[in-house]
Amino acid sequence: MCIRDSINITTLASGINLTENPHFKVYPNPVNNVLYLESSLNEETVFVITDIPGKVVHKGSFMNRTLVEKTHIGPAGVYYVTLSGKTEKFTTRIIISE
User: Fold this and answer.
1) Cα(40)–Cα(11) distance, integer angstroms
2) Distance of CA 96 to the CA centre of its chain
3) Which of 38, 45, 75, 85 has a CA-to-CA distance to 65 between 20 and 30 Å?
4) CA–CA distance from 42 to each of 62, 77, 93 (Å)?
5) Backbone angles phi, psi at 47, to 5 degrees
6) What is the DSSP string of the chain?
7) Which pTM value belongs to this model?
């Protein structure tokens, strides 16, 4: 097995790249009650929240900003949020607290 110094540590074993995107905001993290999703693209943004195995637990769309109550996501744990516009896509990891 060969390990290189140039490994991108933001890429998980799942293949999901967790790089930053200046057009999208997902906060707070960890989530206590409400998750806020923001987009500066001025277009419809689709969001998909999945659990670790990849099962979709919540999805929808919004313009500029929306919120998702943690009761719509699932029990405490780690989830992925993907935001997609016409030309931009962003995935990040969130933690739902108890």
Assistant:
1) 24
2) 12
3) 75
4) 10, 31, 24
5) -120, 145
6) ----TT--TTB-TT--B----TTEEEE-SSBSSEEEEEE-SSSEEEEEEEETT--EEEEEEEESEEEEEGGGT-SSEEEEEEEE-SS-EEEEEEEE--
7) 0.80
98, 78 in Cβ contact below 8 A? no
* C-alpha dist (Å) from residue 44 to 8, 9, 28, 75: 30, 31, 22, 28
